[in-house]
């Protein structure tokens, strides 16, 4: 491989630029833009161009020369026919330049409209999915033989049983932190014993369900979206359909039912761990005895709070599974769509869970407060 | 300078395989394979399924290290311990994967621009010009540049993948089943396109294919893998002369033999 060279000779009063050597991506001295500028300076003198000594010319070098010439043939050019072909090819494409993406003057209004429409279409599709599930449940009540028990129990194990350690850990730690921080505040008012009320109501009614919802959305929701999404990419869902197996009955319904059963149980489990954490912390921090804590808890936290927590768990579970399956079914066969829809699925389910939690708070504001 | 066909000045063969053996656990794939491919040749690698064609191809491009033996491209070992040299060598060949292997997160333009951007010596407007040129070479239009790979048809995916493989103007093009999954008409067009580009750019071609029409249309030489060895290598006529059960079987279908004889003549 030889280096690309530029030589300027005077011949019969006119300037002649002689190019020689290999003119390729590998041999042009980087950065290429500087070479282009240098050639462009030469063009200003309107010289003749002699390219016959170039041994190799590739399209990158041809484009550099063509651009230096101002995208037109120079007045005097000597070039081998082989290389002339290359320039002719460059001429055909470079003329129209880069296709400029069409610019909309009111782009933000369009974006807003698209966002609204896509939100509406997601909502509609999710309602459709929910309706399909209700029909499926009706069908399965009539045909109990078709109930997908195996899928249901597999999902229950994956999203319920396997989530027990992490939910217990998180609940316990949050209980400790909450108890510790509240104790510091309550002490200054001499209201130490109210730690039981505070922990009981906040964990059972609010923190338990929301914590579990966030954890399950991140853990099982993302897994469900990714699983159904990959099945879309590899056409497994179409294969199921050709075998006459309903995707909503076999894929979506077991997931929704499994989370509907697992979430309330996880909520009770996580709340219990949180109360225990708070109890341990209160005992260490304020010498509140375990016996007193356990004795006081049922008196200051009406049982309605437990039902509210469990009810929230049920609703969150159904919503998380529905959202996860909905986004999974919308995955297009490429990696980008899979990753972005998995993210959207998790973000949407956490957001929806918290919105629904707020609705619950308003609707149940008169219940369970002693 | 006369208009002689454009070839790359080479002293050593484009590909030089010496004493190559491959073994996966107990399973022996290749036993002592020696193969030379001269610059400018178009070699079709043929063999039954499971005969290790694709494995050999992966060893040629350095995706897989052979158990024994060496693979040299342009006189340099493909698995050079020096990362700088290895990288430089990898810029001298392009590979067209069976499914295209386009980056699905990038548009057609960005897919073709990817190897160019990796050079870090070109500015964006230069890259855009080059991408448009490559698109023109594979007979696609500028408006296709903004499409995403998921929006392309099978034939277009192959063309874009080819444009990407050619974006650095490689001296060697490695094709894995270039026409698999294309209908006969598209496959014929793709073969024509490859042939035209080879004439224009003068690169060496190694390909694995099952399709007799593709072999006939492209390959100037054949290499036959069977029984873990290279049982024949040469022009179509030379390969036909070798008496081996696989060769007899493979070329016994009248269509295949006719197509290849026609291509060879």
List keywords for this structure.
heterodimer, A: 370 residues, alpha/beta, Transcription Regulator spoIIAA, 2 domains, four-stranded mixed sheet, 71% helix, elongated, B: 265 residues, six-stranded mixed sheet, 10 helices, globular, disordered N terminus, P-loop_NTPase (chain B), transport (chain B), ABC_transporter-like_ATP-bd (chain B)
**How widely separated are the two ends of chain A?**
89 Å
Please report the total strand number of chain B as a whole number: 10
Instruction: Give the proportion of residues in helices of chain B.
Output: 25-40%
Rg of Cα set of chain A? 35 Å
Order of helices and strands of chain B: EEEHEEHEHHHEHEHEEHHH
Gyration radius from CA atoms of chain B, angstroms: 19 Å
Strand content of chain A: 5-15%
Biggest sheet statistics of chain B: 6 strands, mixed
Sequence stretches where pLDDT stays below 50 over 5 or more residues of chain B: 1-7
Protein name (chain A): ABC transporter permease
Membrane topology (chain A): Multi-pass membrane protein
Transmembrane segments (chain A): 123-142, 163-182, 194-217, 256-284, 304-329, 341-363
Subcellular location (chain A): Cell inner membrane
